[in-house]
C-alpha cells in the first residue's frame, strides 16, 4: 500500500515538469514549422520586380573588385590617353588664343604707336602662328592615304619634291580624275577650243515692273492661334480623371479622410462600383499616410482581383506597376522598396503575420470585400482586432458592400460606420 502511494506521489511531482517540457517542445516545433513554410514560399515565389538595393550593392561590389584587380594595369594607359587628348585640345586652344591676341593687338595699336620691342614681339607671334598652321597642313597631308608609283632613280639624280594639289586631298580624287578624263574623251566637241562663248548682243526688253510700297507682309484677319491636337496619352488621362470624379466616393473624399484621422477603426459601407477599392488607397496616399516610410495595405479575396486592381491604380497614378503600386499573391511578388500601396490576397497577409506579427511596416490596413465572409477573412478579423488594440497608430478600415456593417461594427467594439450612397 505504501509503495503505491509513493509511486502516485512521484508521478504527481513529475507531471508539471513533463507538461512544461511538452509545451516547450510544441513551441519549438511550431517555430520550426513556420520557418520551413516561410522558406518554402520564398523559394517558390517569383520576384517580378528585383530589389534595387541588392542589385546596386552587387554592381558596386563588381566595380570595387575590378578597380582593385586592374588599377595598376589601366592607370598608365589611361594617363597616356588623357595626356594625348589634353595636348590636342590645348594645341587648338593655344593657336586660337595666339591668333586672337594678334588680331586684338593690330586692332588696338597702330605700328606707329608701339615701340620697336613690341613690334618685334608682334612679328614673333605672327611667325609662330604661321609655323603652327603650316605644321597642321603638313599633318593633313600625312593623313591622306595614296599610292605613289616608284621611280627608277639613277645615281646622282635627286628626287624633286612636288606639292600636292588641293583637289588631290579630297577622297577618291584619283578615281574622279580618271572618270573626268574618260568622259572628256568620249564626248565630241566641234570648233576651236579657244573660241569665246557666244553672248547675247542685246538685252531682254521687259515691261515696267511694279514698285511695291511695303516690303513686308501684313497680317491677315484669319485666326492663327489654334489649339494643339490632343494626344492619345492626354486623352486617356482626361478620361481617367472624368471617371474618378464620376464615382460615388469622390464627393465624400474630405469627409472620409477626416473620419479616418479621427477614428482608429472605421467601417466603410458602399455598393459595388462606388470606388472603395481603387480610390480610398489613393486618397490616403495623397493625405500623407505614407510619409513616414510605411505602406498602405489592401486585401482582396481573389488573386485576379488583386492583380487587376493594382494595375488599374498604377495606371491612374501614372506610375509603373511594381514601383509605387504593387501586388503580392501566392507564388508571385510584384513589389519593391518603393512600393507604398500594396494589394494582396488574404492568404498572403496570413503569411506576413509569420514574419511581422505586429504589421509594423503598414500605417493603414484595408480589409476589402468583408461581406464575402471567407475563412481567411474571418481569421483576419481576429488578428487585426488584437493588433489594433496595442498599435494605436495603425488605421484599420473594414470595407463592406452589404448591410452587414452593423455586425462588423459590433465586433470591432462599436466602431463608427461611414456610408457611401450608390449612383
Automatic annotation (TrEMBL):
<dbReference type="InterPro" id="IPR002464">
    <property type="entry name" value="DNA/RNA_helicase_DEAH_CS"/>
</dbReference>
<dbReference type="InterPro" id="IPR011545">
    <property type="entry name" value="DEAD/DEAH_box_helicase_dom"/>
</dbReference>
<dbReference type="GO" id="GO:0003723">
    <property type="term" value="F:RNA binding"/>
</dbReference>
<dbReference type="GO" id="GO:0005524">
    <property type="term" value="F:ATP binding"/>
</dbReference>
<keyword id="KW-0378">Hydrolase</keyword>
<dbReference type="GO" id="GO:0016787">
    <property type="term" value="F:hydrolase activity"/>
</dbReference>
<dbReference type="InterPro" id="IPR014001">
    <property type="entry name" value="Helicase_ATP-bd"/>
</dbReference>
<dbReference type="Pfam" id="PF00270">
    <property type="entry name" value="DEAD"/>
</dbReference>
<keyword id="KW-0067">ATP-binding</keyword>
<feature type="compositionally biased region" description="Basic and acidic residues">
    <location>
        <begin position="21"/>
        <end position="74"/>
    </location>
</feature>
<dbReference type="GO" id="GO:0003724">
    <property type="term" value="F:RNA helicase activity"/>
</dbReference>
<keyword id="KW-0547">Nucleotide-binding</keyword>
<feature type="region of interest" description="Disordered">
    <location>
        <begin position="1"/>
        <end position="94"/>
    </location>
</feature>
<dbReference type="InterPro" id="IPR027417">
    <property type="entry name" value="P-loop_NTPase"/>
</dbReference>
<dbReference type="GO" id="GO:0071013">
    <property type="term" value="C:catalytic step 2 spliceosome"/>
</dbReference>
<feature type="compositionally biased region" description="Basic and acidic residues">
    <location>
        <begin position="85"/>
        <end position="94"/>
    </location>
</feature>
<protein>
    <submittedName>
        <fullName>Pre-mRNA-splicing factor ATP-dependent RNA helicase DHX16</fullName>
    </submittedName>
</protein>
<feature type="domain" description="Helicase ATP-binding">
    <location>
        <begin position="257"/>
        <end position="421"/>
    </location>
</feature>
<keyword id="KW-0347">Helicase</keyword>
Amino acid at each position: 500500500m505504501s509503495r503505491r502511494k509513493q509511486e502516485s506521489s512521484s508521478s504527481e511531482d513529475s507531471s508539471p515538469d513533463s507538461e512544461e517540457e511538452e509545451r516547450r517542445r510544441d513551441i519549438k516545433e511550431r517555430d520550426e514549422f513556420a520557418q520551413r513554410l516561410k522558406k518554402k514560399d520564398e523559394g517558390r515565389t517569383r520576384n517580378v520586380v528585383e530589389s534595387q538595393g541588392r542589385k546596386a550593392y552587387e554592381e558596386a561590389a563588381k566595380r570595387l573588385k575590378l578597380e582593385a584587380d586592374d588599377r595598376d594595369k589601366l592607370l598608365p594607359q589611361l594617363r597616356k590617353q588623357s595626356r594625348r587628348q589634353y595636348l590636342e585640345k590645348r594645341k587648338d586652344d593655344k593657336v586660337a588664343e595666339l591668333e586672337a591676341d594678334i588680331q586684338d593687338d593690330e586692332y588696338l595699336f597702330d605700328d606707329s604707336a608701339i615701340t620697336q620691342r613690341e613690334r618685334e614681339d608682334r612679328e614673333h607671334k605672327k611667325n609662330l602662328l604661321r609655323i603652327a598652321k603650316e605644321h597642321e597642313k603638313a599633318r593633313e597631308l600625312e593623313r591622306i592615304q595614296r599610292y605613289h608609283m616608284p621611280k627608277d632613280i639613277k645615281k646622282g639624280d635627286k628626287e624633286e619634291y612636288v606639292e600636292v594639289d588641293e583637289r588631290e586631298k579630297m577622297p577618291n580624287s584619283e578615281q574622279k580624275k580618271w572618270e573626268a578624263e574618260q568622259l572628256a574623251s568620249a564626248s565630241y566637241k566641234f570648233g576651236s577650243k579657244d573660241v569665246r562663248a557666244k553672248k547675247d548682243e542685246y538685252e531682254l526688253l521687259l515691261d515696267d515692273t511694279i514698285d511695291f510700297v511695303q516690303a513686308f507682309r501684313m497680317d491677315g484677319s484669319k485666326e492663327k492661334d489654334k489649339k494643339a491636337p490632343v494626344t492619345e496619352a492626354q486623352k486617356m488621362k482626361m478620361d481617367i480623371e472624368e471617371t474618378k470624379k464620376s464615382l460615388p466616393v469622390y464627393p465624400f473624399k474630405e469627409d472620409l479622410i477626416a473620419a479616418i484621422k479621427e477614428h482608429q477603426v472605421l467601417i466603410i459601407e458602399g455598393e459595388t462600383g462606388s470606388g472603395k477599392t481603387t480610390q480610398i488607397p489613393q486618397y490616403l496616399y495623397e493625405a500623407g499616410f505614407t510619409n513616414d516610410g510605411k505602406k498602405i495595405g489592401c486585401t482582396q479575396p481573389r488573386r485576379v482581383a488583386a492583380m487587376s486592381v493594382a494595375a488599374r491604380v498604377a495606371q491612374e497614378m501614372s506610375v509603373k506597376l511594381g514601383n509605387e503600386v504593387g501586388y503580392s499573391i501566392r507564388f508571385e511578388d510584384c513589389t519593391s522598396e518603393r512600393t507604398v500601396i500594396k494589394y494582396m490576397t488574404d492568404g498572403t497577409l496570413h503569411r506576413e503575420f509569420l514574419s511581422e506579427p505586429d504589421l509594423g511596416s503598414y500605417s493603414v490596413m484595408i480589409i476589402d470585400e468583408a461581406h464575402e465572409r471567407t475563412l481567411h477573412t474571418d481569421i483576419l478579423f481576429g488578428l487585426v482586432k488584437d493588433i489594433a488594440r496595442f498599435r494605436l497608430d495603425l488605421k484599420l478600415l473594414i470595407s463592406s458592400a452589404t448591410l452587414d456593417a452593423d455586425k462588423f461594427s459590433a465586433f470591432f467594439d462599436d466602431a463608427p460606420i461611414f456610408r457611401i450612397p450608390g449612383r
